[in-house]
Design brief:
Blueprint lengths: L4 H8 L6 E2 L5 E3 L5 E9 L5 H7 L6 E6 L7 E3 L1 H9 L4 E8 L2 H4 L5 E7 L11 E2 L2 E4 L2 E4 L3 E5 L2 E5 L5
Parallel strand pairs: 3-4, 4-6, 5-6, 6-7
Antiparallel strand pairs: 1-12, 2-7, 3-8, 3-11, 9-10, 11-12
Length: about 160
C-alpha cells in the first residue's frame, strides 16, 4: 500500500498522538517506504537479542531498536537484515549503527539507522524487550503504528491507513 508521510501529516496533523521523528536517520535497505506495528527493543552494543527477535515471525511489524545512539559498533549486518526479511518483518529502525550497508541496500526491506560502522557488536546477550523506547523525539510504544518513507518517520497510536 502506497502512502506518503507528508500526506499523513497533512491529514492527521490535528491528532495529538501523531509523532514525527527528528531527521537523524539515514536510509538503508532496498525498500524506502514501509509501515507496521512497533515492537520495541532496548540493547547497547550487543546484537544477541536482536537476532532472537528477528528469528520470530514479524509479519506486519517494525522492530524499533534503541541502541543508545552508539556509534562505536554496528548492531545490524547483512545476515540479520536477511533474517528479518525471511521472517517477514516490515522494517527496522536502529538508534545506532549498521554494517554491510552495500549488501543491505540490495535487500527489499526498509532500514533506518544513524550511520554505517564496520565494527561488529558484542555477543553477551544483554538487552531487554520493553513496552516503550524513547529517542528522536518520539515514544515508540509497543503496538503503535510506524510509517517511514524518504521524508521521515511518523508514529501514531492508531492506524492511519
Amino acid at each position: 500500500m502506497s502512502f506518503s508521510t507528508a500526506r499523513l501529516c497533512d491529514q492527521f496533523a490535528d491528532q495529538t498522538e501523531l509523532q514525527i521523528a527528528q531527521p537523524m536517520f539515514q536510509i538503508f535497505g532496498g525498500k524506502t517506504q514501509f509501515h507496521g506495528q512497533i515492537t520495541p527493543l532496548k540493547v547497547f552494543e550487543d546484537h544477541v537479542l536482536i537476532a532472537e527477535i528477528l528469528a520470530k515471525n514479524g509479519a506486519g511489524r517494525v522492530l524499533v531498536i534503541d541502541g543508545g545512539g552508539s556509534h562505536r559498533v554496528a548492531l545490524l549486518g547483512q545476515p540479520l537484515a536477511a533474517l528479518a526479511l525471511a521472517n517477514h518483518w516490515c522494517g527496522l529502525i536502529v538508534y545506532g549503527c549498521i554494517r554491510d550497508s552495500e549488501s543491505i541496500g540490495q535487500l527489499p526491506i526498509g532500514i533506518r539507522a544513524l550511520h554505517a560502522q564496520p565494527m561488529p557488536s558484542h555477543k553477551k546477550g544483554l538487552g531487554e524487550c520493553v513496552s516503550t523506547v524513547n529517542f528522536a523525539g518520539i515514544s515508540f510504544k509497543n503496538n503503535y503504528f510506524l510509517y517511514a518513507d524518504t521524508d521521515g518517520i511518523v508514529v501514531s497510536a492508531t492506524q492511519l491507513l
